[in-house]
Every structure is written in C-alpha cells, then in structure tokens.
C-alpha cells in the first residue's frame, strides 16, 4: 500500500493530473490544501476520484513559504494516515511533483526495499547550505506577512552578528509591521534540543508506516522539538530529517536517499527551479532511486507532462 501525502496551494487541474497518473487500487491519496486558499475548487475537481482523503479544515495549516506550517501540515496528515490504519509507505509530494517511473516500477521498487526510509540526511554544519546551515539552527526567522519571501532572519543578542546594521534594519522592519513583540525572543539564546543531532536534507521523502508511527511517538514524547522549530528558517529541510536519523541511529542501513529528483544544478533560482520540455531527457534518464521529480508548472508548460505520460505508458 502507498499513501501519498500531497501538499497543494494552487492548480486543482494539475492535482487531478498527478492523482490520475498515480492512481491504483493499492494507493490512497491524502490531500492537504493550504489554509490560505479556498479548498473548494480542489474538492470539487476531485469528486469522482476514489481513495482520496482531504485533511479537515480544523487540521489545515498556513503554508507560508519556508515556514513551520508545511511541517505541521505533514504531521497532521501523518496522524490521519495512522488513525485510518494504513500500511505500507507514506510518500510526501507537492502538487507540483510528478512521477518519472511507472506505477508498476514504483510498487516494485518500494516492495523490494521495504523497511528502508527514503529521506536525505546530512550533518549540520554542512557545506551544502549558506553559512553551513548554522543560521537556521541559531537565528530566529520572523514572517513579516504571508507573502512569499517576506521575512527577516535575526541572530540573538548573544551573537556578534546581532550588533550590525543588517540586524538594525531587520528590527525596524518588524516594528513597521507591528510585530515589535517578536523582538523579545532575541533576548533568549536559541539552542537546538541536545537529545538529537541536527540533520538537513531534501524536504521530500518516503517513510515506512512503522517509522511514521515512531515519528509521531517521538513528537508526543518531545513536544518542545516542534516548538523550537517555530522560528526555524525552512524547517521542513531539518525537522523530519533529524527525527528519522535519530530513530535509525543504530540502523543506518535503513536510511536511503530522497525519491524525488530536483535539478539543483541550475543557477539563479529561488527555491526548486521549474522543469520544462527541454529537460525531458535529463528527467527520464535519472537513476532508479528517483521515482518522482519536481517541480512542474502545468499552466506554463503542459507539453512536458504530456510527454512524460506517453513515456510512462511505454515503461515497466
């Protein structure tokens, strides 16, 4: 059984396309619609689709870019999957992802590797990120509004970087949007929980239901871990990676790479760059470990998805 968690905030028709290509009698879809958008177009567009479950309104979270909402949305969805008694794998996707392997291949690959957790993890500090990722661990990220990229990242008063013109300007921005109260957080040193070692990695993963249950138990036992990440910059690239790595500390052989290909080699892009028809050959020639790719903009380039559909029909 595969339980697809799909986080969406736009393009209901693209969501339908993704669900249709992945649809199978051994598949369930759990859809979380961003609380900041109207969920009705997504629900109405998928009325005739079986095995689809929308996260209830009281469990929907605000998916502010690089914020804790995406983590909380995923936690709420995992709780629902466990409550429903599902088995197999939970695969986290966005509405802008798409398979690059056939359903038969995906099922076979997951079956042959059952028990492995497909989640990228690396130590922090890391050369993969700016400032070695320590700004995410030590600094506070405050949203100025719900607009994409409208936030500030500020060190605490215990850090030398606090005493700079950049910090002063950031504090002024907080005052200008009437969020002066947040400044008092800077009086407290931000310290990562010492019972786990911070890990980073891709936000997109596939976890066995056994691991999912252990993650939920970990969070019930350590609620302060979620509280700490309230002010983390891009927490979905640290949160689950840290927990799953901790849970498998004695069984590293059960850790694998992310199942989702992202073309990070392309420069001058904020966030994951879009894939288009010009990248088709690169996409289909990814190694066997990549089952999905991101991200696609159906409204801007539908040709790439049409060509992928045709390709997947011809492959095992």
Describe this structure in words.
- The chain has 316 residues and is α/β, with parallel strands linked by helices.
- Helix content is 33%, strand content 16%.
- The strands form 5 sheets. Strands 3-2-1-4-11 form a 5-stranded mixed β-sheet, with helices on both faces. A 3-stranded mixed β-sheet has the order 5-14-13. A two-stranded parallel ribbon has the order 6-12.
- The mean pLDDT is 94.
Provide a compact summary of the structure.
The chain has 316 residues and is α/β, with parallel strands linked by helices. It has eleven helices and 14 strands.
Q: Could you outline the blueprint of secondary structure elements for this entry?
A:
Layout (H helix, E strand, L loop, with lengths): L1 E7 L3 H11 L4 E7 L6 H6 L6 E3 L14 H15 L5 E6 L2 E3 L3 H10 L4 E2 L3 E2 L10 H5 L1 E4 L7 E4 L10 H12 L22 E2 L5 E3 H13 L2 H5 L10 H9 L7 E2 L3 E3 L17 H5 L7 E3 L8 H12 L2
Parallel strand pairs: 1-2, 1-4, 2-3, 6-12, 13-14
Antiparallel strand pairs: 4-11, 5-14, 7-10, 8-9
Helix pairs in contact: 3-7, 7-9
List keywords for this structure.
three-stranded mixed sheet, 316 residues, alpha/beta, single chain
């Amino acid at each position: 059984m595969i339980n697809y968690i799909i986080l969406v905030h736009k393009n209901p028709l693209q969501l339908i396309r993704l669900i249709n290509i992945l649809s199978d009698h051994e598949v369930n879809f759990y859809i979380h619609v961003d609380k900041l958008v109207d969920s009705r177009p997504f629900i109405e567009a998928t009325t005739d689709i079986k095995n689809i479950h929308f996260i209830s309104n009281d469990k929907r979270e605000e998916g502010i870019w690089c914020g804790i909402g995406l983590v909380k949305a995923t936690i709420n969805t995992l709780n629902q999957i466990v409550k429903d008694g599902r088995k197999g794998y939970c695969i986290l996707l966005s509405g802008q992802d798409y398979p690059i392997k056939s359903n038969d291949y995906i099922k076979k690959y997951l079956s042959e590797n059952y028990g492995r957790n497909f989640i990228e993890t690396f130590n922090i500090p890391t050369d993969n990120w700016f400032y070695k990722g320590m700004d995410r661990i030590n600094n506070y990220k405050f949203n100025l509004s719900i607009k994409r990229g409208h936030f500030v990242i500020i060190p605490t008063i215990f850090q030398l970087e606090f005493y700079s013109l950049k910090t002063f300007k950031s504090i002024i921005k907080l005052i200008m949007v009437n969020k002066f109260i947040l400044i008092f957080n800077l009086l407290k040193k931000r310290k990562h929980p010492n019972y786990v070692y911070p890990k980073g990695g891709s936000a997109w993963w596939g976890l066995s239901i056994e691991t999912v249950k252990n993650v939920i138990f970990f969070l019930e036992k350590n609620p302060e871990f979620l509280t700490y990440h309230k002010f983390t910059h891009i927490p979905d690239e640290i949160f689950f990676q840290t927990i799953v790595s901790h849970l498998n500390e004695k069984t590293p052989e059960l850790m694998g790479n992310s199942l989702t290909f992202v073309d990070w080699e392309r420069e001058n892009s904020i966030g994951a760059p879009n894939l288009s028809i010009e990248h088709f050959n690169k996409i289909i020639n990814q190694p066997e470990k990549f089952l999905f790719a991101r991200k696609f903009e159906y409204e801007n380039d539908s040709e790439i998805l049409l060509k992928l559909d045709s390709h997947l029909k011809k492959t095992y």
